[in-house]
Amino acid sequence: MSDGRRLGSLLDPRQSLGARILWILLPLGLVPLVVFWISTDRLGRRMETELRNLLTPTLTRQAEQSLSRAADLYREELDERRRQAEAAGHRSVYGLFDAFSAEIPAGSDGLLFLPLLTGERSPNWNAAARGVLAGLDLRHDRRHFVKAAMEGVMYRMRSVYEVLAPLAGGDVRQIRANGGYAGSDAWLRIQADVFGKEIAVAGVEEAASLGAAMLAMHGTGALADLKTPLPAMQVKRILEPDLKNVAVYEEGFRAFQDLYDRMFR
User: Who's near 35: CB < 8 A, 6+ residues apart?
Assistant: First the structure.
């Protein structure tokens, strides 16, 4: 018997209770529930087997095709970004993002982004918090999204700074920058303006690793004083804040904090 005839006989509501249940639930898109339901019907066990044989290959092919297409779209989008970056003379997509940032004014024309895509750690330790994009309108394009994301990260860093600053015992004049972002002038300038402080780029990129090594050296007696900076920690360069942007970001930071409070407190 052909697949069409076999399925037709199995789906005839005059022949089985399972078929009648199927015709009730199928319009609701509940095929998995249907298969489970009829598997409990002793009279419908043959129908279950036949349906699985007929439906599973089709559904599997559809899933494979969807996944393949999604992967193709991702590769196409990434390749397009790489081509744009290379055409603009950048070595990576991140260079292109830095260029986007330079084209958009401080404050991203009112666009705010809470960068909490996997929850929040410090300073509020809120695992339920999630990312938020607020203030979107017709003025905004992909460059605004990039700039708002960068600003959102720096607003979050300032939130941590606001907790730590009182522990420093006085006014903080300078902030040392290290890590991957310290290699980007765009990131550093946003940080200087958001914090309203001069940003000093340290000579070592991974200061956390150096700090761990220094603690180990001090513990073994190889380093007598933790207060004495190592040559690697000497400042390479300093970026000063732009006072015009500082005023914009001061207002933006308050809006950022207010948005967080409204969403998650």
Answer: 48, 51, 52
Average pLDDT score over residue span 72-85: 68
Of the candidates 38, 60, 85, which is a domain's last residue? 85
- CA dihedral (176, 181, 184, 187) in degrees, to 10, reads -80
Instruction: State how far the Cα of 56 lies from the Cα of 219, in Å rounded to an integer.
Output: 63
Cα–Cα distance, 14 to 71 (Å, whole number): 45
Residues 151 and 74 in one domain: no
DSSP 40: T
Among residues 85, 114, 131, the one where a domain terminates is: 85
Distance from CA of residue 212 to its chain's centroid? 28
Same domain assignment for residues 111 and 242: yes
Alpha-helical (H) ranges within 119-264 are: 142-164, 185-195, 207-220, 243-264
* 103 confidence band (pLDDT: 50, 70, 90): very high
Round to whole Å and give the CA distance between 162 and 124: 12
Strand partners, 237: 201
Which residue bears the tokens 């942007």?
A: 245
- Whether the bond into 123 is cis, omega within 30 of 0: yes
Q: For residues 150 and 217, state if they share a domain.
A: yes
Count the neighbouring beta carbons within 10 Å of the beta carbon of residue 142.
Answer: 10
Q: What is the pTM (predicted TM-score) of this model? A: 0.67
Assess whether the previous peptide bond of 115 is cis (omega < 30° from 0): no
Same domain, 222 and 159: yes
Task: Look up the domain containing 157 and give its range.
Answer: 94-264
107 shares a domain with 71 = no
